[in-house]
Amino acid sequence: MDWIRENKPLAAILGVIIVGALALGYLLFDAWSIYTETKDGYIAMGGQVAGMKGAPLAPTEANLQNKKAAVEEYSKLVNTLGKTVLILQPPVAPINDIEFQEKLKTKISEVRKASAEAKLQIPAEFGFGFEEYTRSKLPKSAAEATELSGYLDAVDELMKLLMKCGVKSVDLLERSKLPVEAATTSTAQANNNNAGMRGQAAATAGILEKRQISVVLTLDQGPLQLLISRLTNPTDMPYFTSVRLLRIENQMQDGPLHNEVRLPTPAPNDPNAQAATPKTEEAASDEIKPPAPAFPDAVSVFGNELLKVRLEIDLVKFLDSAAGVTAQIPAGR
């Protein structure tokens, strides 16, 4: 301290030098840290660039040609699949408006007769969802009649499948409208595949149409499982279908009351009932006979009810453009 008092100018100079050295040291350390971080980033980026150059999908001319070849092969396979589904799809014969109405009435008569034989209950005003065409309304054109005819064939196949699976009752059957049914005089709206579908099944990228069929069924668990499995079996259902919605509930939501439970009444000639009544006289015999089973004194209260099922099915129709589907994909995708 005495030296600082005696040499104030020199002490001030030394203090400035020390502070400057500390400041320069901090700046040097900070610069070195930034340099090290920048160097590490540069080295990492260089490694990434080297890895990209050595990767199988490096942006080289050879890889570009390989990718083009793979895309072309994929396009051929997709187009082949589109042509295949068009071949597997049942064809639709051209038909006019009068012929369609006659065909619809004939189908209704046939399904009523077949449902009676299969013990399938259908609504009194059943018309495959085309009830408006059984009266005065007719398709507006031959093209519309043809589309409706193919639609009717698909619903008819569904009804035949319901009979094969052992469905007890078809309580409701509804269908979505075709675009041509709700088309207006505007050409733009007539060419729009989404018009008239009421937000249900619309065309997907011009490749297919999803026509929705909604049914309410009464059936048992076994027939329901059989129906779901056979919907995707081309032997039982020749049309392409997919299940959109499946809602299941018991036919009876509440159990029966005590006074609703009735024991079965034995028939006069029922051997079980006769076994419960002791015989006064019995012929002598050495044959040992087991006693007849007693008449049942209990009944099942739960487990015998049927199911109420709401089933929405997408009936998929592939359009002719499915044969060249890859041509509709924008470039760069």
Beta-strand segment tally: 4
Helical segment tally? 8
- Give the radius of gyration: 41 Å
The CATH class of the largest domain: Alpha Beta
Mean pLDDT: 80
Structural class determined from secondary elements:
alpha+beta
What's the overall geometry? elongated
Sheet having the most strands:
4 strands, antiparallel
> Could you name the CATH topology of the largest domain?
Alpha-Beta Plaits
Describe this structure as you would to a colleague.
This protein is an alpha+beta fold and 333 residues long. It folds into 2 domains: 1-59; 86-253 and 305-328, Alpha-Beta Plaits (2-Layer Sandwich). The protein has 8 helices and 4 strands. The chain has helices spanning 2-6, 8-54, 61-88, 97-117, 142-165, 187-190, 221-230, 271-276, and strands at residues 169-175, 208-219, 240-250, 307-318. Strands 1-2-4-3 form a 4-stranded antiparallel sheet. The chain is elongated, with a radius of gyration of 41 Å. The termini are far apart.
Entry keywords:
single chain; 333 residues; alpha+beta; Alpha-Beta Plaits; 2 domains; 4-stranded antiparallel beta sheet; 8 helices
Structure in a nutshell:
This protein has 333 residues and is an alpha+beta fold. The protein contains 8 helices and 4 strands; from the N terminus they run αααααβαβαβαβ.
